[in-house]
Amino acid sequence: MTFIGEFGLIGRPALTAIIGLVIFIFVFRYSKLIFEWIENQTLGTRTYLMEKLEFLMITVDPDKITLWLTSFSLIVLGLTVITMGLLLNWTVGFIMGLVFGFFSFRLPKVVIDYFVEKRIQKYQSQMVDGLQLLSNGIRAGLSVPQALGMVVGEMPAPLSEEFNIILQQNRIGVPLEECFDNLCKRIPTEDNDMFVSSVNILRESGGNLAEVFDTIVLVIRERIRLQQKIDTFTAQGMFQGVTIALMPLLIGLVYSANDPDSMARVFSHPLGIVMLFVAIGLDAVGFLIIKKVVKIKI
Q1: Which of 15, 107, 266, 290 could pair with 272 in a Cys bridge, judged by C-beta atoms 3.0 to 4.6 Å apart?
Q2: DSSP states of 271-286 as a string?
Q3: Band (168; pLDDT cuts 50, 70, 90)
Q4: CA 208 – CA 206 distance, rounded (Å)
Q5: What DSSP string describes 217-236?
Q6: Can you tell me the distance from the alpha carbon of 137 to that of 214, in angstroms, rounded to the nearest whole number?
Q7: pTM (predicted TM-score)
Q8: How many CB atoms lie within 10 A of CB 155?
């Protein structure tokens, strides 16, 4: 017994040292990747938000973005620590608060990406009218920059803003082909790629830009018509996905109304809290899979 007791006392520090050594070797081996990942989750998020805000024509001081991200992360950390500390214990609450606070830096990306996607969709919907104006201007004898200026004066944002950027870059000496390539980088859609490629190729080789624009307009219209038809067919699948995702919540509310004492254990017992988070995660994964299946791009 004495030998076993002494072995246990000696074995615990040895096991701790081995685990620490393994962690040290792993961190040292992949230190570059780990630090790059941490930078992407923190300072990289600020750089990403600045680029997307610039695309949205919103000017914000980088220091304010850092302050907002830090404040939001601290709020999430504090709320998580208090909530989990009262429900479970303060140690688990502090650990989960650190995890949630760290990953909360990614939440503003989701919000900004939503507005960026909406701007791109609005640009897509305006391309038909914009290209028709370009075609009419070129038929009237205008050059490409002059036709772009006409579109800027007639069309609303965001198409007018994007074409105005092309003109501004061209005025300061940037070649027109490079200006169109920059537009393609800002709005990487298939219709925009087709438009930019046709302009750059025909400006070098020669050709009737007006007829090419008319052809692109027909292609875009047919794509929009087909996409609307597909959206109609997949609307039922999306509705079913939302229904399935909300079903566990509705069942939980029903059980809470019928038997509050049994549901209280889910929020008070450690195993119940773990199962709750697992259920929420699996529910979110299932909804994302359904959304991925029913979303068809043309």
Answers
A1: 266
A2: HHHHHHHHHHHHHHHH
A3: very high
A4: 7
A5: HHHHHHHHHHHHHHHHHHHH
A6: 12
A7: 0.70
A8: 18
